[in-house]
Amino acid sequence: MALLLCQAKGDTAGSCLKTLSPNPGGVDLLPPEVCSLLNPAAIYANNEISLRDVEVYGFDYDYTLAQYADTLHPEIFSAARDILIEHYKYPEGIRKYDYNPSFAIRGLHYDIQKSLLMKIDAFHYVQLGTAYRGLQPVPDEEVIDLYGGTQHIPLYQMSGFYGKGPSIKQFMDIFSLPEMALLSCVVDHFLGHGLEFDQAHLYKDVTDAIRDVHVKGLMYQWIERDMEKYILRGDETFAVLSRLVAHGKQLFLITNSPFSFVDKGMRHMVGADWRQLFDVVIVQADKPSFFTDRRKPFRKLDEKGSLHWDRITRLEKGKIYRQGNLFDFLRLTEWRGPRVLYFGDHLYSDLADLMLRHGWRTGAIIPELEREIRIINTEQYMHSLTWQQALTGLLERMQTYQDAESRQVLAAWMKERQELRCITKALFNAQFGSIFRTFHNPTYFSRRLVRFSDLYMASLSCLLNYRVDFTFYPRRTPLQHEAPLWMDQLCTGCMKTPFLGDMAHIR
């Protein structure tokens, strides 16, 4: 049962306690109309940006123009699992494992030498209770011992600019979900059967097996055979592109996928003349090196996919180009700076260089956002969060009381707050919680999202909810030295959540 503090004027913490029901004496725990105000179809801004100033729109293909159904993940998992067994000679017992869509979330880190999959916050701290070796949770004490008596991962060990550190790798793209699941299952099998293995070899073999699924074209074959099953929101993709062209915007596509695959997908979503919507189409671009390597020239592809040998001096509408590099792209198109807005799903490979090195505007496609917002809008989540905030405020204010009764009350509050944290975490994912937050801090994924994207949204179709000259303004969220009064009012129901009601018109 929740505990709430009454007015304290020099008394002990214990003497000021009331035991309250979820709605004691008519007191509103939640601000009026606070639920269901966040909209999963909205676009959220990290930086102020006016679409009126954007003249050129660029797009990645996979999970940007083409959204895929989750039914793709178990097929990737199963194919890579079979490759490990049949080509890498892994134990046949691994075949008993099936894909678990509820196990992992995007943005997790994997310590290769420790075989540890874990969630790390924006300050490089492991969130306790979210470290797994194989499919088994690792006790908090062991995690702390593994990192020298701390939850903190030093900067030199953390993943680098593209999510790859010397021994720790961050899983940032949506295709990494089956990879994390397979990695955990294989480790689980080896540990469960007492088999010795080299952690680095196992990690590389699993990564190579997942890569083989893509390189050998297996995933492309599945999607091409049944596009209705795998491709989502194709009509909305067509509506977004057509609307932009109708308003005089220039469009381009830069993708790592091969032309034949992209062509079939775009024909399914947009139609046979889809190339007429784009001023430039670049396939097999080899991002992220496309954005940093000046050496690879553009090559033109013909209708059959054969490469031409002639030097490219201009990029023509309706033609297909392969590889190349961004520096030649900028020279040939003269599309520079903030008048270009590029959308992608991978924060490192798609967006980081474009924002930091070239000053383009960037939009991150985060499909998980839709589900997480729907959870945030539930009454269970809002009640849990409100109580957590209230208890945190009580703990902070009343910690000065050190008599026996007060210490007992503070311990009860601490225990209740931890229980609420675990309940809230499990609403998103039983093992790892939300991709955006640890118990209270932003995750490392969130930190990168804010750093590398001006806008973020669940899908490209969210653009249909806004005028092409709309200006996005990031909300003024309080800094810590601005927060105490604002948060106290919010948590005790005395003030409505600011700025959310004006988004209610969005579908």
TrEMBL record:
InterPro entries in the cross-refs: HAD-like_sf, HAD-SF_hydro_IG_5-nucl, HAD_sf, Pur_nucleotidase
Keyword terms of this UniProt record: Hydrolase, Magnesium, Metal-binding
Keyword Kinase among record annotations: no
Gene Ontology MF annotations: 5'-nucleotidase activity; metal ion binding
Cofactor note: Binds 1 Mg(2+) ion per subunit.
Listed cofactors: Mg(2+)
Residues reported to bind Mg(2+): 60, 345
Binding site for GMP: 62
Catalytic site positions: 60 (nucleophile), 62 (proton donor)
One Pfam family in the UniProt entry: 5_nucleotid
Family statement: Belongs to the 5'(3')-deoxyribonucleotidase family.
Name of the protein: 5'-nucleotidase domain-containing protein 2 isoform X4
Organism classification: Eukaryota, Metazoa, Chordata, Craniata, Vertebrata
GN (gene name): NT5DC2
